[in-house]
Amino acid sequence: MSQPSSDPVMTHIGAAGELSRAGDVDGARAAFAKLWRAAVAEDDAFHRCVVAHFAADAEPDVEQELAWDLRALEAADEVTDERLAAFHAGLTVASFYPSLLLGLADDYRRVGDDARAREHLARGQEVLGVLGDDPYGETVRGVAERLAALYEAPKVVTAARVIGAPASTVFELIADPARQPAWDGNANLAEAAGGQRVRAVGDVFVMRLTMGEERENHVVAFEEGRLLAWTPSDPGRTPPPGHLWRWELQPLSGDRTAVRHTYDWTGLVDEHRFERARNTTTERLMGSLDRLAAAAET
C-alpha cells in the first residue's frame, strides 16, 4: 500500500515503524500511542485502523499485539470507501480485511485460542479474492497458506492451552527428559536418565518407553524458554523415521504461558508407525497439556 506524503499522519506512522525496525521498541510504542490518541481525538476511523495495524506489527507482546489488531478491525468496519479514496484512488475498504483477519488468526493462535484462530483464518480466506497480483497480495496469501498448513494438514495434530505458571517453569518440565514421564498423557514414556537436560539443537536424549524399547530423540529446534522440537528414532538409526514433536511457549501477563503442543508426521516414512501416528489425536496431546499444567501449577 503506497503512502502519499500529503497525509502527515501516514508520514508519522512510517516514522514510528522505522523506530521499531531499528530496535527502539519503547520509542515505537510511545509514538504509536501518541498517534492513536490523536486519531481517536480527530474521530478518523481510517487513521485509527492504520495506526493500530502498524502498532500491532511493532508490538513484541503478543497480548498487546492482539489488542491492537482488534482495534484495527473495529476501526476498519467504520471506514467508508469515500474516506479511503481520499487517501489513495482505487483502494477499497475490502482490501484491508485479508491482512487484518489473518493477523488476528495468528495472534489468537499464539495465545492458545485455536477456536478463534480458526474462525478468523476462515474469514480471511473468504476475502483473499480482493487482493491483487502484486507483492502485497502475494505476502498476504502466503500468510494464509502458512496458517492453513498449521491447522488443516491431515498429518499435523495440534493442541493448545494456557497454563497458570511462568514459561521458565513450564519449559523446565519439557526440556528435562527425566521429568517428561510424569506428565506424559499417552502412557508411552517410562523413564529417562538424569543429566540430559536439553540445551541446544543437535542434543540427543534417550528415553525408555513403557514397552521396554529405547528411543533416541534428536533435537531439531531450540530456544530457551520458548521452543523445543525433536524427532525420535531407534538407537543408531540414521536418518530418523521422520515424525516430530514440537512445543511452543508464549509468555503471557500474570505469570501465565500459552503452550502449543504439535505432533507432525508429514515426513514419516516407516509404515509400521502409521497406525500409532493416526491414533495420536488432539485429545491425546491435550491430555499431556493438562497433566503438564497440573505439574507446573502446583
Q: Structural class of the secondary elements? A: alpha+beta
Please trace the helix and strand order, writing H or E for each element.
HHHHHHHHEHEEEEEEHH
Please report the total strand number as a whole number.
7
Give the spatial strand order of the biggest sheet. 1-7-6-5-4-3-2
**Residue share in helices?**
40-55%
- Gross geometry: elongated
Q: Which consecutive residue ranges, at least 5 long each, have pLDDT under 50?
A: 1-5
| Alpha carbon gap, first and last residue | 50 Å
| Rg from alpha-carbon coordinates | 23 Å
**Main beta-sheet annotation:** 7 strands, antiparallel
Describe this entry's structure for a reader.
The chain is of the alpha+beta class. 47% of the residues lie in helices and 17% in strands. The protein contains 11 helices and 7 strands. It has helices spanning 8-21, 25-41, 45-57, 62-76, 81-87, 97-110, 114-126, 135-152, 167-175, 274-278, 282-297; strands at residues 156-163, 189-191, 204-209, 214-223, 227-233, 244-252, 256-264. Strands 1-7-6-5-4-3-2 form a 7-stranded antiparallel sheet, with helices on both faces. A hairpin with a 3-residue loop joins strand 4 (214-223) and strand 5. Helix 1 packs antiparallel against helix 2, helix 6 (97-110) packs antiparallel against helix 7 (114-126) and helix 6 (97-110) runs parallel beside helix 8 (135-152). The longest helix is centred in the middle third of the chain and has 18 residues, at 135-152. Residues 1-5 have low confidence and may be disordered.
